[in-house]
Design brief:
Length: about 300
């Protein structure tokens, strides 16, 4: 039967695994509605992942093969986490004033699935180090795994691929422009006056062809509009579609213009909000890494 090292390895792995899951959960606040029930759900899944990881190596060493088989079966169930998140966020998206978009939601679902695997891997290292060494080695392995998870879960944000600055909002007849980029036509004088008084515009200039290709993705632009509206508020209701934040691309230069009618009219915070929007995995492309892409950019 398993002895004290087994219990110590499991305890150490579970504690460190759950702590890491709680830490990375807080980083999702802007992307995911971390209400109390949502936090409880993901901490519970993190606990299960930590138990699976922490027991794996000690169970093998103690020749508890039945337990290992059961744990391998349980680990496959984490593939359903992505589906659970996707379905829930798609349902929530239908009632939002500004939609996240399918690409943004898929990215969030992938993150939540991957972070359970990170917890499992961390607990596996901690449990193994504790079983073969002692609690000190277990905590040392946990710290190394924590630093690794920080690096792994860090992604690019918009300010790393583009320069963001204020753009002048103006009209030419009924056409709304941000600088020289046409956004849309607005036929009602009252709506045009609201835009002139309340709207803010930004210009997003890609730093290179990689950034230009990424900003051409419609899902990435929807993510920018969603984050800006979520952080600054939106002067819009369900029946005022004309105040939806819109992004349009200059086909010649690759620049993207955004116009938004926020509740908090502060251009500094709007620029900061756009800078911190995550670059979506599904949108990020790197044509400059290929020889053809580099030659075409010359």
């Amino acid at each position: 039967m398993p002895g004290a090292p087994f219990a110590q390895a499991m305890f150490n792995g579970v504690v460190i695994g759950v702590l890491i899951r709680y830490y990375v959960l807080k980083r999702d606040y802007r992307q995911y509605p971390s209400y109390p029930h949502g936090v409880l759900t993901h901490l519970s899944l993190g606990f299960i992942a930590a138990v699976i990881g922490s027991i794996a190596i000690p169970a093998l060493m103690e020749k508890e093969f039945t337990a290992v088989t059961f744990l391998a079966l349980a680990a496959t169930q984490f593939r359903e986490v992505r589906d659970m998140e996707r379905i829930m966020l798609l349902n929530l998206d239908q009632t939002s004033l500004v939609s996240r978009g399918a690409d943004y939601i898929e990215g969030i679902a992938r993150i939540f699935e991957a972070r359970n695997y990170i917890v499992m891997f961390t607990s596996l290292l901690v449990g193994g180090a504790t079983y073969w060494g002692n609690i000190f080695y277990g905590w040392l392995a946990g710290i190394l795994a924590f630093l690794f998870s920080q690096k792994l879960m860090g992604g690019k944000i918009i300010k790393e691929i583009a320069k963001i600055r204020e753009g002048r909002v103006h009209f030419e007849g009924a056409s709304l422009y941000v600088e020289q980029i046409q956004i849309m036509n607005l036929g009602t004088a009252e709506v045009r006056e609201t835009y002139l008084q309340r709207a803010l515009g930004v210009i997003i200039e890609p730093l290179d062809d990689n950034g230009r290709a990424t900003l051409a993705n419609n899902g990435q632009r929807m993510a920018i509009a969603y984050d800006a509206a979520a952080l600054l508020g939106i002067y819009k209701d369900t029946d005022t579609g004309e105040f939806m934040p819109i992004l349009r691309r200059d086909l010649d230069t690759g620049r993207v213009a955004m116009v938004i009618v926020p509740l908090e009219r502060d251009i500094h915070f709007l620029i900061e909000a756009v800078k911190r929007v995550p670059v979506l995995e599904s949108a990020y492309v790197t044509p400059l890494r290929s020889s053809i892409g580099r030659k075409a950019a010359d």
